[in-house]
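Handout, section B. The chain below has 220 residues.
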Amino acid sequence: MAHRSSSSGNAKHDELVEGIQMDMAVEDQLLNNPLLYNYEADWQRVFEVLPELLEPGLDAWPYREDRQRKAVEALRAYAAGGVARAPPDLVENLSCPNGVPGFPGAVGMRGEELEYHLAKALQSDAHRAFVIGWLVLEDEEALETGNVAVIFLDTLGNVVRSKRVTAEEAEQLAPLWQDLSFDESSEWEDGELGPEYQRGGSRGYLLLDSMRDASIESAP
């Protein structure tokens, strides 16, 4: 889905999307009328008008809740017990001396390097399990900088992760979303956590540090 939340002139908009087919990338969910959808910084108000925007996409996955449960349990186990309680297949893949597709540089990892990549992978998987859609936001900042915001959303319209990229880069995310491999994109890997997924947020418990703190507090 692409959402234009700006009342600036069309010249900057045309320059921003020149040479791309964003309407094709987001199919029929292009909200490009600033007279109807100009919410400025409060862009999440669009879900009050069109709540169905939070229903498509990955929400239709079979066993989505089961996937969430397993991802959270795997992260919680790692937080409590470290490498010894991490998923064995993931540990084996990351420590494989021949390298693993999808993990650049993951060759024979040991020690702190292995711990870092295990944490990163499990953290990513826990956040990914809650994503049901993505949005490309064209706001005033996008028109000034040339970088739109790619935003990954949960069922409540909360931002899971987001990152500013060029419109061309945002367009390239569409096939990754269709293949359910969006978590391999830089938009996801380098994305900034949304407020509710940061420490103190309603889903801040999904952070590894939060789980480690909870594990320490629950220890006898």
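Note. Confidence is low (pLDDT under 50) at residues 24-28. Compare this with the example in section A.
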